[in-house]
């Protein structure tokens, strides 16, 4: 079906126009350009005689300003999305400036993400792709129509080159700046459809690696502004002492020593802790250390001990009488398994993991009367408006959110707690901004960790070793029950993000997925690849176990199960060639894993060695082949795969949060282990463009195959020793070797 941009004239000024697509309004305008630099921390009102929330602004000096609607947290989205508009409007990228979008979901909401401003789920490019390309095409048609009136020629005789309209018959041309300065909008305005988009083969920017990321120079020279860098006139600083156990509250506070610290202005009792406001960061930090608080002792989280609960989850997964929510069913898997010649059963588990963003949680807030302004490294401006409004006792439309660069996000910065801190303290000093910065210890111990989970997988094989039924049981708490309760209720208790990735494209005749929620009270949240990060661990390791039972090559088995999936077969065949799958290695082995999560096909092979005495695994090389459909920026896709693989190896080998009686045991990077540079594998990536296929998400696609590829390599190296518990700590590896 052809989708058309519907245009409304008269809504904006003479030099601007408004378009809507699928209910999303888009403003495009001609006028003067703000002098703000790339990646400005505040989305400035683009000056000129038009509304300030436009996507595109063309200035008389031939500069083009394009809004970036998503949060830049190191994934390159501040380049990718504006590039889509620039491509189809034929803008000269050297004359383009990027401005971060203000908080306005009606204008900048992601069509693929509930229409809100939220960066996550590997959904940004997928959600905005068609809309932004159509905006670019519409802008180009408006420019051509306006230029035709200026040159007094039919519009069909005109063409565009970067930032230029050309009339080849007469040899005349106009810059976009000329059109902006002297042109008039045509009436009626021309419309744009998908037929007006450039064929990918003719694109200057899409599919090329020649466009550098817009955010990199400022990060290299130190001029980039992250949330933690925000400085405002008359600003105060805040810190919050939180209860050591979630859900507890302060009952008795001795703040005499804290108040005596020079520069401390306020000590504030909060429902979840004690807030400190002062003139300097150092003063608030010292005062926080001097607070003496007696906490309540009634939270049910005091019964939360992660090791004990994980064993409980595993028992529940194995107990087939425990019935949860049916998340997916195709065929009668239970009946097929009951009649199978052989049944393979396996349990896979993973511990809580911490987001470990380089920039800890922080936000700055200013409360003035009924209005609130927030400066924050947030993934969700729309959510931030709602959180801030609730705390301040106002409405979301009176909250302005300025999204800064993010020093890492991974889902953590879509949360509300650091926003609530800043607004809660700013309420105490109305008219003065307050910046709250979490310490690393705060960040580690009060994170919204990935859910603790256990999985029980049963696969039935017939007499020939063919799969007849696959049952996958996932036991974990819910993320959606806390973050999106209405959706959780609508889905009748199914949490799609927790079970995400359990559906696969392997050809099995009967497949069932069950979700058994465990509600033990501890907040859990979105963590890089969320459910896919552990569901693919179980699936890909079980595939290898089936291959062993059939005495066939695990690569050949995957190709057989994917016989009708050409894109999947291509990435597997490509990565096998890259790694020389059949070549023997002394003291090392290869493991393979595949994922089709987020609409992208990704296959990885890990080369590992093992110290049997210490139990330490060393990952030497990871080869990766990825097909994300239309590869908007191939070099950036490669970079994102390297990021995902590095994180995947880190969480598979090292990362672990332990909770004992409600208290988190880790506090900083000395106790929360992440991969070190000396331990990072050599990573080789091949990007396979497939322009005839829908665009896939890439931000999180690299992580899911890494862990199972490592585990499968260890199994091949050791003659079948299976690692089934993330992370693969040395003591766990030795226990498996000795089992």
Q: Could you describe the 3D structure shown?
A:
The chain is α+β, with helices and mostly antiparallel strands and 739 residues long. It folds into 3 domains: 6-217, Aldehyde oxidase/xanthine dehydrogenase, molybdopterin binding domain (Aldehyde Oxidoreductase, domain 4, 2-Layer Sandwich); 228-298 and 361-437, Aldehyde oxidase/xanthine dehydrogenase, molybdopterin binding domain (Aldehyde Oxidoreductase, domain 4, 2-Layer Sandwich); 306-352 and 450-738, Aldehyde oxidase/xanthine dehydrogenase, molybdopterin binding domain (Aldehyde Oxidoreductase, domain 4), CATH 3.30.365. The chain contains 21 helices and 30 strands. A 7-stranded mixed β-sheet has the order 12-13-10-20-17-18-19, sandwiched between helices. Helix 1 (77-89) links the parallel strand 5 (64-68) and strand 6 (96-100). Helix 1 (77-89) runs parallel beside helix 3, helix 10 (381-392) packs parallel to helix 11 (417-426) and helix 16 packs parallel to helix 20 (706-718). The protein is globular and about 80 Å long. The chain starts with 5 loop residues before the first strand and ends with a helix. InterPro entries: Ald_Oxase/Xan_DH_a/b, AldOxase/xan_DH_MoCoBD1, AldOxase/xan_DH_MoCoBD2, AldOxase/xan_DH_Mopterin-bd_sf, N-heterocyclic_Hydroxylase, OxRdtase_Mopterin-bd_su_IorB, TAT_signal. Pfam families: MoCoBD_1, MoCoBD_2. It comes from Pseudorhodoplanes sinuspersici. This is Carbon monoxide dehydrogenase. GO terms for molecular function: oxidoreductase activity.
